[in-house]
Amino acid sequence: MTTTDPRATAAALLPLVGGAANVSSVAHCMTRLRLGLRDRALVRDAEVRALPAVLGVVEDEATGTYQIVLGPGTVARVAPAFETLVDAEGLAARGEAIRAGQRARNATPGKLLLRRIAAVFVPLIPALIGCGIIAGLTGLLVNLGRLPGLTPALTATASGFMALIAVFVGINTAREFGGTPVLGGAVAAVVVFPGVAKVEVFGQQLSPGQGGVLGALAAAALAAYIEKWCRRHVPEALDVLLTPTLTVLVAGLATLYGLMYAAGAVSTAIGTAADRLLAGGGAVAGAVLGGLFLPLVMLGLHQALIPIHATLIEQQGYTVLLPILAMAGAGQVGAAAAVYVRLRQDTALRRTIRSALPAGLLGVGEPLIYGVSLPLGRPFATACVGGAFGGAFVGLFGMLGGTVGATAIGPSGWALFPLLDGGGGLTGTTVAVYAGGLLTGYVTGFAATYLFGLRGITGTGGAGEDARPDTALSPGPPPAPGS
């Protein structure tokens, strides 16, 4: 470290005075950096005095400040750098506190169940993405009339996984709910077995695949429960024979004579509701979905949408909900860009935005949410406004016939382009509508944040356009999710 580098001096001083959490105020005079400390015992005096830039240390009992003598000129450069570090760490700490609070609030039985259901589908996302991109490429080739000899092979490659997705859901469900994975897969395989067409339930013939992933999920969860019951009650000498037999038999019959029928009705209702939502709701439905998705993420309720997406993809080949929900990420990107432009003097926050923005453009919004918008408070709300306008744009065109769907779960932002499908594969109209929605979300999120989201906020340590109160080193608490 050299004495001429104010940032290095500030970075060296901060941990020696107990870190950002121990600093309650920062000021300076002609020669001294004056710090208000919450706990004087956390200061490592000897190490502070040993720093090359430090000329001495003074205790001012009258004002209760800890004063580090740096000398004229030096202190004027070190003090702003030190304050930037203090507030940047404070902002990061607030983001981590928000995450910790959300984890605690999400530990309810209902939300834990949603997390377990999400854990069933998340491992399937790579296959969904790969097969989805191949399906999109196949649709594009068919539309263009190219490579007719290859497209049947591509169709088989893309469709094989989806034809057996119920089995994979069963394997993951059994693993997640404490059963033997292969038994979960065996029971879930009943759902897609062609022979179920010979089974009659409530006067109707079952059809292969009826109930889809929801039926497989329910069947494998039941199998895991039956297996665990058998492990407790079946004699050890007979366990290897009776437990798997009873598990597959009881769960399999329950699947055929109840779960497939019930799950099929639910799956059909989901598909019908999604179609009617966009056909009748249009821009309003899109605005509600796009605007509320970030609060849903904060509440942990977005995980309930994963099996709905999977059901729509299985039924229709794509989910019409994901492109609309992806607009929330566009609003978040626009809001972050506005923060970057407005708070020009806040180098620490701008550095955070620069590092997180590429991920945000590709649909990974957590770094921007927890590192920027939520700790600052109001920009989180204006990001939701951007998501609402982007969702309204996509929803409006959906009502007018420009359906935009996604053939896989997971990616959003720019990463969703290769997975778009509007019923006729990847078309120019589908791409244009989705791109228009993203642009609308970016622009609206930026404008709302620039004009309304940063009043009274000067960032984490810079001298912005508005005066920051001297009594606070960090912004106030963020609004409650959804407010």
Automatic annotation (TrEMBL):
Entry-linked PROSITE patterns: PTS_EIIB_TYPE_1, PTS_EIIB_TYPE_1_CYS, PTS_EIIC_TYPE_1
InterPro entries: Glu_permease_IIB, PTrfase_EIIB_Cys, PTS_EIIC, PTS_EIIC_1, PTS_IIB_1, PTS_Sugar-Specific_Components
Domain PTS EIIB type-1: 7-92
Chain segments carrying region Disordered: 461-483
Compartment(s): Cell membrane
Keywords: Cell membrane, Kinase, Membrane, Phosphotransferase system, Sugar transport, Transferase, Transmembrane, Transmembrane helix, Transport
Protein name listed in UniProt: PTS transporter subunit EIIC
The organism of origin for this protein: Streptomyces lichenis
Membrane topology: Multi-pass membrane protein
CDD domains: PTS_IIB_glc
Record: active site: C29
UniProt keyword Transmembrane helix, yes or no: yes
